[in-house]
Structure prediction request, 138 residues.
Amino acid sequence: MWKEKYLRALADYQNLLRRTREEREENERYAAVKTVSQLIGVFDVFEKAQEHIADPGLKLALTQLFTTLAGLGVERIDPTGKPFDPELMECVEAQNGAQLVSDTIIPGYRMNGRLIRPAKVRVMVQTKNNSNDQKENT
Prediction:
């Protein structure tokens, strides 16, 4: 009887240790998400500045910052020319045409597989009138 109680208590304790370790690992993995999402906004501003200034020092700093972010598990989502995926993209404008992303307005980012910011895109949408026009032209 006491042996069963001991084994049950030991199993409960081992489960508690396992759950605590898993929660701690998850918290460590995603602790930087808030900070990284704020840094990505700063990165976007520097990229726009680089487009207008074209300074080699700024380009070097941007490269180093992105390398550091990539080391933390951050990856850029560039959906231009790909089919629209609502899990990774946010449509800000739709135009007539094939159902592909025609332009990325703001790139999206993932960190360790978790979406930090969806890509804001312009999508070409095929309408009924547009598809009828294409059929008549062929």
Summary: The two ends are 84 Å apart (CA to CA). Confidence is low (pLDDT under 50) at residues 130-138. The chain has one domain: 32-137.
